[in-house]
Amino acid sequence: IHGRANTVFSYNTIKKAPIESNLGDPDTVVENNNFYPDPDSVFWAWGLDKQSGLVADMSNNWWGTASVEEIRRHIIDGKRSPKYADSYMELLIEPVLTGPNGFGFVRGKVVDSDTGLPLSRALMKGEGFEVRTNVVGGLFASMLEGVNTLTVELEGYGTGEFAVEIVAAEVSSAELLMKHPDEGS
């Protein structure tokens, strides 16, 4: 994870993929994420090359466990053993989150309830965000876990309200049906 100055990588969920740090860039923040590394993978993350002199920081993240000992078993860095101390800087991981960050996701589709056709450009609003559907009526958004009320608006269809249950670090699916006021009359 490396970006231009002042990059923030937060409130994401990464599953079964290698995890990179901020590469020692103090302007890149990597925190409050849910990392679910592949349990069959020996190494989940690594410190930077010792010659760089840079310390990578991945503190304040959830690693699928709150056990620092367990996380450290899967990290290659200067703390792993004297063998690695000559080649790698330490990867900062503490403190670790004690559970998932509380954010989950909704993947949905907005369709005409009578025709089943996707509705593009529908505006979905939730607490603190707005997103429009794509050309096939699809949408994807992150939100806090719990039951969330979503409002969907589309010119010619009016406004609909839907409830969706969000589980932290999981993707919930929803098909949102909108009825055109002129259909069925």
Quickly list its features:
single chain; about 180 residues; mainly beta; three-stranded mixed beta sheet; 15 strands; elongated
Describe this structure in words.
The strands form 6 sheets. The chain has a 4-stranded antiparallel sheet with strand order 11-10-13-14, with no helix packed on it. Strands 12-9-15 form a 3-stranded mixed sheet, with no helix packed on it. A hairpin with a 2-residue loop joins strand 10 and strand 11. It has 2 helices and 15 strands. By secondary structure, it is mostly beta strands.
N→C terminal distance = 54 Å
SSE run: EEEEEEHEHEEEEEEEE
Largest sheet report = 4 strands, antiparallel
Sequence stretches where pLDDT stays below 50 over 5 or more residues: none
Fraction in helix: under 10%
Residues in β-strands, percent: 35-45%
Q: How many strand segments?
A: 15
- What is the molecular shape? elongated
Radius of gyration: 21 Å
**Total of helices:** 2
Mean pLDDT over all positions:
88
Spatial order of the strands forming the largest sheet: 11-10-13-14
Which structural class should the secondary elements be placed in? Answer: mainly beta
List the quaternary state of the chains: single chain
